[in-house]
Amino acid sequence: MRSVNERLMDELIAHSLFSGRYSTGVARRMIKALNEFDAELTASLIVSLDDTSIDVNSFTARRLESLLSSVRSINKRAVDSAFSLLTEEMRAHALYEAGYYPSLFDALLPDVVLRKYPLMSITEEMLFSSVMSRPFQGKLLSEWADGLESDRMTRINNAVRNGYLNGDSAVEIGRKIRGHANQGYKDGVLQLSRANATTIAKTAISHLQATARDQFC
């Protein structure tokens, strides 16, 4: 008969594999939430830039700030939507993780051990609050959201500035930012921000799981 430690190791490996697949799914849903605003963002950008009175000599940082005000608003809504989804996913996963370790040890440990050493558990809300108040990779989740929003706008600003200096049209600049449909929009300047969002989502889920494990132990 296999020992408790061997069975525990098997369960933890299975849990790790499940967690990896789950975090990948969360990241994909988060990226989808971001992408849903891409068409609106690009259209607003093209309309804002399609101004014949703008040339290299009149193109200043202040003018760029003014031109992209509507784009900035859409970008904020996109990031807010993506992080709202991530937060909801984390709250739902907190319910699962809060019950996982107590259920696991309750199933594996002999009754005599459980009677002598009753299992302690935390609630979903306790776990979620702890996760949201603890930084991971040096930042709170809210700070990661602010950073992603700022990163996307910086990339947009730089693409617009370079586009004007190169004499690109508003449509060409828009395509450089969003990317091309025949490339799956993976050739635009926003692609790296999508990769960053994927990393944030996976790290956030991993942070939640580590917190659940630490608080149970």
Characterization of the model:
The chain has one domain (4-216). Helices cover 77% and strands 0% of the residues. It has helices spanning 4-35, 38-49, 61-67, 69-108, 111-116, 124-133, 141-165, 170-178, 191-216. Helix 2 packs antiparallel against helix 8 (170-178) and helix 7 packs antiparallel against helix 8.
Write the layout of secondary structure elements.
Layout: H1 4-35, H2 38-49, H3 61-67, H4 69-108, H5 111-116, H6 124-133, H7 141-165, H8 170-178, H9 191-216
Protein name: Phage protein
Organism: Proteus mirabilis
Global outline: elongated
The sequence of SSEs as H and E is: HHHHHHHHH
User: Which structural class fits the helix and strand makeup?
Assistant: mainly alpha
The tally of beta strands, per DSSP, is 0
Average of the residue pLDDT scores: 88
Task: Please bin the fraction of helical residues.
Answer: over 70%
Q: Mind summarizing the main beta sheet? A: none
Low-confidence segments:
none
Q: Domains counted in the coordinates: how many?
A: 1
Please count the helical segments: 9
| N-to-C CA distance | 26 Å
Gyration radius over CA: 23 Å
Strand content: under 5%
Give the gist of this structure:
By secondary structure, the chain is mainly α. It has helices at residues 4-35, 38-49, 61-67, 69-108, 111-116, 124-133, 141-165, 170-178, 191-216. The longest helix is centred in the middle third of the chain and has 40 residues, at 69-108.
